Amino acid sequence: MKSNKDSYYIQKIKNGDVGAYAYLVDRHKKMAFNIAMQIIGNREDAEEITQDSFLKAYQALDSYKGESKFSTWLYRIIYNASISKMRKKKLDQVSIDDDYTASVNVKTTQSALQDLTNEEQKLYINRALNKMNGDEKIIISLFYLEENSIDEVSEVTGLSVANVKVKLHRSRKKLYGILEQFLQKELKTIL
Amino acid sequence: MQKEDIYKDEFIKKLLSDVELEEPSTDFTKNVMDDVMQDWLENSVSVKKRMPLKRLFILIAIVLLAVVILLGTDVHSIVASWDHPFIQQLNAILIEPIHNLLMVAFNRIVSLPPIVYIIMIAGLSLIVFDNLVRKMLHQS
User: Fold this and answer.
1) Would you say A101 and A174 are in contact if contact means Cβ atoms under 8 Å apart?
2) Can you tell me the ipTM of this complex?
3) pTM for this prediction
4) Nearest CB to B19 within list A18, A29, A145
5) Cα–Cα distance between A32 and A30 in angstroms, integer?
6) Looking at the partner chain, which of A25, A43, A175 has a beta carbon nearest the beta carbon of B12?
7) Which of A44, A59, B15, B109 is such that its CA lies 20 to 30 A from the CA of B76?
8) Do A34 and B22 touch (CB under 8 A)?
9) pLDDT tens for each residue of chain A, 191 residues long
10) What domains can be seen in chain A, in order of their start residue?
């Protein structure tokens, strides 16, 4: 339904109604900005890249044939722009591949998290997400928040389907591990 | 998927449903649209809509055909031989003047000195060459 509406507005733009692009920007800006944020890590650069990518997408709209969802096509542009910006800035990505997956007790973590208030839960989840690297955050966000399929995540990130599956599995496990570590630390401070 | 993975999958889905994505600045859409409008204005000024090549060829072919018919065949005398007041009038008002005009133009073109043809061909070649170079530069 969402992509149907997108194609309606894309057709309007192709027919000369440039203003219709504002609708697409409004609809996709949040996720687009978050993809850039997760790779770049600071608001100013992320916003600049997202803005430029929306312009690039507009300029390349004639090449969009509707074979994939507009959002998938757009996120791919933003993903590539963010990655190349990162390379240009030569930022040393801190490897956060620490072993967070050592001992994951699913049911304990779940029940401990469920005991927390909503606000506390959000805080822990955001903190845990911030501990993950760009690719992991993007895969988690695209799959769980944007409800993209594995194929669509693969198209955005340029990773193979098998690779996305593996990364998704690892990211899920890692997110759990990080949450468990946070909770254990909290328990220790309380005791 | 293992049982543990299913638990995690479901639980993360539930947890992440509460996560709020960060919002870009409030004038984000306006900024993007300013850029888009600027781009649109620049392109609409620099790119004139051209007649499709196919339509242009058809138009040239029709004009050439009309000229050949009017010059090559004695249309006005054929039409004049038809004994109908409307056809006679049409011939007198339209076909004969056009025929005469084309004949004068044809005779003048034929009597032009060769240097004029050389200059015309050179000019046309330059225009074609310029277009080709522009296209190549644009593509690169």
Assistant:
1) yes
2) 0.71
3) 0.59
4) A145
5) 5
6) A175
7) B109
8) yes
9) 555 688 899 999 988 889 999 999 999 999 999 999 888 888 899 999 999 999 999 999 988 888 889 999 999 999 999 988 888 775 544 444 444 444 445 555 566 666 666 667 777 777 888 888 888 888 988 888 888 899 999 999 999 999 998 888 888 888 888 887 877 766 555 54
10) 2-89 (1.10.1740.10), 106-190 (1.10.10.10)
